[in-house]
Design a protein that fits this description.
This protein is 28% helix and 29% strand. By secondary structure, the chain is an alpha+beta fold. Strand 9 and strand 10 form a beta hairpin.
């Protein structure tokens, strides 16, 4: 068991580490109950109601996450009533982000369980940050969508403030899609394996100067590219450089546009719209009629206007909360 100094006085309440596969059914039940209360959209590309298989895939060791030491489980009289986790990563501008996530069954909220879990997770993240070369460029982070009002209230009380927001957009019917022609000066062809390093470099360069962004290491990203047919890429006809790229995948019966980016020299010429339309047309040819996409509200290029022009509409906003982490100077 794990002793928390600020644990609420609730008969039968204990906190303990994650027990692996044995905990997954109870954790899935917590997430399902929270999803009903918090109006989680099961078709979303941002939030989800994870299945047992999803949890088994997510709750595994990675560079910024160790479930054995980074997950805290709360139970009352043997019943799991909530859990929290600590995750960290670095953004492209060098910021070290330490994220706390937590869920408590609706009927157990408002009793101090979520607060105690948040404090434990923050402590775990501060200890991790103390061992990292952050150079003082670190922050605590947490998430709460616009419908997760209980979580948002707790985060606000604890000093978190929205730093940016993710906007999710959806299109319900692709039958009326208008295909935009590829602008002059660009060529398109099927993506091939030897193109992957250039594609990864093109995406990385497209996000230079974007706050709150991260690009996964090439090896990690390339290992996930098992279907190159999901990519729609345009090359500069004169130089042979990749100018822009869009990826659209099918996920649980609906389409998801996972990537839209155009290199700085090629923007404002209709290339992004043309590639996006091609990607959506591919989804339609597979019998898909509904698609989702998300972007930052603070995107300097206001990319949501492009998506709305194609037919997407704003569905939901997901504020991302942050709080300073003073005292780190190494």
């Amino acid at each position: 068991m794990i002793e928390l100094t600020d644990a609420p006085s609730i008969r039968g309440l204990v906190f303990r580490p994650f027990c692996g596969l044995a905990d997954l059914p109870d954790i899935a039940a917590v997430r399902a109950a929270c999803a009903l209360r918090d109006r989680v959209d099961g078709l979303s590309s941002v939030e989800s109601v994870p299945t047992l298989a999803d949890l088994e895939e997510r709750l595994v060791r990675s560079e910024g996450f160790d479930p054995e030491s980074d997950v805290l489980v709360a139970q009352v009289d043997g019943q799991v009533v909530g859990y929290s986790s600590a995750i960290w990563w670095t953004e492209t501008d060098g910021t070290w982000v330490y994220l706390t996530l937590g869920w408590v069954l609706p009927q157990w909220r408002g009793r101090g369980i979520g607060t105690a879990m948040l404090h434990w997770t923050q402590g775990r993240l501060r200890n991790l940050a103390a061992s990292h070369p952050t150079q003082g460029k670190a922050c605590l982070a947490a998430n709460a969508s616009e419908t997760e009002t209980d979580t948002a209230a707790l985060l606000t009380y604890e000093g978190y403030r929205p730093a940016f927001s993710v906007i999710e957009l959806g299109i319900d019917d692709l039958t009326g899609l208008r295909v935009a022609p590829l602008p002059g000066g660009f060529i398109a062809r099927p993506l091939e394996s030897p193109d992957l390093p250039d594609l990864h470099r093109s995406m990385d360069q497209a996000y230079v100067g974007h706050a709150f962004s991260e690009t996964p290491p090439y090896e990690e990203w390339a290992a996930r590219q098992t279907d190159l047919g999901t990519w729609h890429v345009a090359w500069d006809a004169a130089t042979g450089a990749i100018a822009g790229q869009v990826q659209a995948v099918v996920y649980r019966g609906r389409g998801e546009v996972a990537e839209v980016s155009v290199g700085a020299p090629y923007r404002r010429r209709g290339l992004g719209q043309a590639l996006l339309c091609r990607a959506l047309l591919t989804l339609r040819e597979q019998g898909i009629q509904e698609a989702r996409i998300h972007t930052l509200a603070e995107n300097p290029h206001q990319s949501w206007h492009l998506y709305e022009k194609v037919g997407f509409r704003v569905l939901k906003c997901f504020p991302r909360y942050r709080k300073s982490m003073p005292g780190l100077s190494h």
